[in-house]
Amino acid sequence: VGNRDDSNLYIHMKLKAAAEIGISANHIKLPNTATEADVLKCIASLNADPAVHGFIVQLPLDSDNPINTEKITNAVAPEKDVDGLSSINAGKLSRGDLGDCFIPCTPKGCMELIRQTGVQVAGKRAVVIGRSKIVGAPMHDLLLWNNATVTTCHSKTSTLAEEVGKADILVVAAGRAEMVKGEWIKPGAIVIDCGINHVPDSTKASGKRVVGDVAYNSAKEKASFITPVPGGVGPMTVAMLMQSTVESAQRFLEKFQPGKWTIQYNQLTLKMPVPSDIEISKSCMPKPIEQVAKEVGLFPDEVELYGQTKAKVQLSVLKRLQNQPDGKYVVVTGITPTPLGEGKSTTTVGLVQALGAHLHQNVFACVRQPSQGPTFGIKGGAAGGGYCQVVPMEEFNLHLTGDIHAITAANNLVAAAIDARMFHELTQSDQALYNRLVPSVSGVRRFSDIQIRRLQKLGINKTDPMALTKEEVNAFVRLDIDPGTITWQRVLDTNDRFLRKITIGQSATEKGFSRTAQFDITVSSEIMAVLALADGLDDMKKRFGRMVVASSKKGQPVTADDLGVTGALAVLMKDTVKPNLMQTLEGTPVFVHAGPFANIAHGNSSVLADKIALKLVGKDGFVVTEAGFGADIGMEKFFNIKCRYSGLRPHVVVLVATVRALKMHGGGPAVTAGVPLPKEYTEENLQLVAKGCSNLNKQIQNARMFGVPVVVAVNAFK
């Protein structure tokens, strides 16, 4: 803070030393008008920045405003306080926790100088003159914990010469020129002089010279070792600052070594009979999601908290861990299911809880976000079941972080743009349309980037809006959509059967331009499928632009890019592209991201969630992802679509089967959701099970055709 000459000199020395040894260092300058709040804000930013391993606040703070120095030094995170001035580091030093703290640089440098003499500190009598927080007090503690017998002297010590005469090791930091006389010093003593004082000297150009707190010329005759002033302790202080910064970086790497997790698992109390899923979920106290993120090696600036139990993870983590090898990749699928579901999600969650909480492996589950349609229908939620659930269940099954709502908004924006464009083309001339699409602002027309792309698609290589011919203007402004070819429908994430077929455009303002349309469920939107396959925001935006929404009357495909809405879609979806972090009942991490259906899309959670999880678990960890619907649809689309886009290769398939489903495939009667099961399913019938194994056998063959081994998991219901 400010612009003191002495502070600038010290900072220059530190920056020069850092550059010499390859430490990346920079100088953050605050003006002398800076307030305490300004300084604290700057410190908070550095505390949270994982790229910074250490920082110092240069004292004194040269500000026109009152600033509490103690408050400022204690605001520095102890693990980045390479000056060792915070109360936490001082407290650890005074307790002797030398391996778990940073020692102030001057005392640390003094100690290194003493070690360099080869003299053993243990058992020696040491005297420290001065008791400042920066030198005297920490020097006393450092000598004490190196097993010296230490006396601290200060301005009120009446027998100073006598105490100095007993010292085998003398450290002086009093700030008084040549106060310690040579005759006081014990013959053979080690003398460390930390003082810097200016005394008049007419022989110098400046009229003064620098001296220490010890009368050097007389003291050097008696001491076995003595530091000069200047050039003694000063350079050592700078060297120790560099060393502490390197130590901080090493500690940081050890703490955040990829693949090395320390997780606090939740202990489950199992009850018989098993309570309902919601009772079990409510009985669990989830860890703060901030803690889960820290446990799996995410940095604070890579996590966006949405309350206490869910968070979004920044895609920047992929760049940070790009050189980290991937973990083992496991896909959970199922035999052809009954309408009641066979428990793929339950098996997925149970498997990661077993690998994590019980076998102490690094493991991540990656699951789809459920639609509210089935959640409020007969099927119910998709958080797993029993003691194998993602929690909190209601957060998981309902809004989560708003991803599905964002998809609803983005999808319906496209639908609105289609009908608005058709309306305007039917009611306006070419020139009127052109004036609206390329308006004159302050007398100047400009094409936007997306309009340039449309012109190029039409084979018009012009960038000046005034240069287009009438024919080119016509081609540019008219998409000429054939209403009968529109494939893009409006969506809603609720089952509402009366919106399956509707008539739109009945308002008088639409001038009689009505048509038949429909609402689909949100998760069936192509935008959901794009989200699940994208490998970043830019890739997602390009995919949005290519989405075909209809055909022109000439049979040409019309895309979102032609409508000019690609950028708007990307803005609406900018947060949705980040995976959502949650946890299981036993406290293992889960990514919940994207939820396309497998019968109309590819039925798998996002590529991004899998990629981030594989980096976080490290080469010996496991990522368990789930493919929707049966193996003959969800698993095959996982291999043929998701893996081919992502470039990831699964190591094993877990194939979920139930006796109930096997009996149905063996010829048992149909089962209907909400209706009691026929007796064939509640009584033993080995013949039906055996016949139904043909389905299981075929699904195993299908998986093996991709060269992936199969483990069958038989899920039992209570």
TrEMBL record:
Pathway given for this chain reads: One-carbon metabolism; tetrahydrofolate interconversion
**Top-level lineage group:** Eukaryota
The alphabetized UniProt keywords are:
ATP-binding, Hydrolase, Ligase, Multifunctional enzyme, NADP, Nucleotide-binding, One-carbon metabolism, Oxidoreductase
Q: What is its EC number?
A: 1.5.1.5, 3.5.4.9, 6.3.4.3
Where does the record place the Tetrahydrofolate dehydrogenase/cyclohydrolase NAD(P)-binding domain? 104-251
Q: Which GO terms describe its molecular function?
A: ATP binding; formate-tetrahydrofolate ligase activity; methenyltetrahydrofolate cyclohydrolase activity; methylenetetrahydrofolate dehydrogenase (NADP+) activity
Q: Which reaction does it catalyse?
A: (6R)-5,10-methenyltetrahydrofolate + H2O = (6R)-10-formyltetrahydrofolate + H(+); (6S)-5,6,7,8-tetrahydrofolate + formate + ATP = (6R)-10-formyltetrahydrofolate + ADP + phosphate
Q: Which GO terms describe its cellular component?
A: cytosol
Q: Tell me a GO biological process for this protein.
A: tetrahydrofolate interconversion
InterPro entries, per the entry = Aminoacid_DH-like_N_sf, Formate_THF_ligase, Formate_THF_ligase_CS, NAD(P)-bd_dom_sf, P-loop_NTPase, THF_DH/CycHdrlase, THF_DH/CycHdrlase_cat_dom, THF_DH/CycHdrlase_CS
- The Tetrahydrofolate dehydrogenase/cyclohydrolase catalytic domain is annotated at 1-83
Concerning its family, UniProt says: In the C-terminal section; belongs to the formate--tetrahydrofolate ligase family.
Description of how the protein assembles with itself and partners: Homodimer.
Q: Which HAMAP family match?
A: THF_DHG_CYH
Name-wise, this protein is C-1-tetrahydrofolate synthase, cytoplasmic
User: What gene is this protein translated from?
Assistant: Mthfd1
